[in-house]
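Issue 218. Parser rejects a valid record. Input:
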Amino acid sequence: MERLCLFPGLLRWLLLPLFLLLLSGCEGRESELDYVTCGSLVKLLNTRHNVRLHSHDVKYGSGSGQQSVTGVESADDANSYWQIRGKPAHPCRRGSAIKCGQAIRITHMKTSRNLHTHHFSSPLSNNQEVSAFGENGEGDDLDVWTVQCEGVYWERDEAVRFKHTGTEVFLSVTGEQYSHPIRGQREVHGMSSPNQHNWWRTMEGVFIQPSQELVRHDEL
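Output the parser choked on:
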């Protein structure tokens, strides 16, 4: 009887190191997933206006005539997925954490065109037009944006800014709404100064780990 009474305590003592090892492994795995990584497919929310960055095969009727980029309130629209990529001729390593200050491209999943801006006026607010440009993920140097954040890496739950490397404007929304054919969608444009209208945060998406595995965040 004495042996039976001691066995459970001995078993717990033997299993405790294994439990602690597994726990530390889980904590390390979670820390790897704290960052936005190269190749990840995400939705980006403007935190001031609560709209997700969006595009579709609808051209601007003025300005550049390129594919329009807007903000939508819906969380379920598949046209709001964007892939995080390296800049032209300097691809980032798939699964590597994106650093604060790193130059990236943001590519629309459905149309394979890159988030882009240039010296055209936006149709509603007269700020700088933002469009989707290129074919099969390849455009030009005006597709490059710098991630502005506080720490070393772009954290998934952190609000960040995107500053255009070519024209130095910030990706922004100030609330202007389109009518037909994209009624209710918000204008997305570039603004020359950082302010409350140009904070963005990752929401739903598929995040790439350094091990190349896919990690789902909410529902696709």
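Fixed in the parser; the record now loads. Residues 1-31 have pLDDT under 50 and may be disordered.
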